[in-house]
Fold:
Amino acid sequence: MIIKRATEAGEFFQIHQLNYKTFVEEIPQHQQNTEKILVDKFHNKNQYIVAKRNDKLIGMVCYNLQRPFSLDEKISNLNNYLPEFTNLAEIRLLSVIPEERNTKVVYRLFKYVATEFDRLNRYCNHIRNNKAITFVYAPWI
Structure:
């Protein structure tokens, strides 16, 4: 299994397919479509971390560092519930294909994200992520 940041067009296409399977078919949060792909509303600012076995995407999670977050739309006055930090990150869209759900995929994805945040904190002094907001609905975890 390889864990990496998504960079290739084929990876992004598989991300959109997995989003559809997870957030339309399995957890019906969005409308069905004939293409069977779901491009996230925040796609252009998301950083996707993917788990791959050979060339097949088996899991993913994403984060972004720019407000507004998806939670800003779900919770009015979100700032009232957050501690006062200058920089936040939102981690979301966790998804793993069913046959890989009892493996270490979720652990490895989040470990990679933690490594990314550590790298950002150490090498980019102007970006400090004091806290991450995690919004995960995954009944299979």
About this structure: Residues 105-123 form the longest helix (19 residues). The two ends are 19 Å apart (CA to CA). Residues 125-129, 132-141 have pLDDT under 50 and may be disordered. Helices lie at 9-26, 70-74, 105-123.
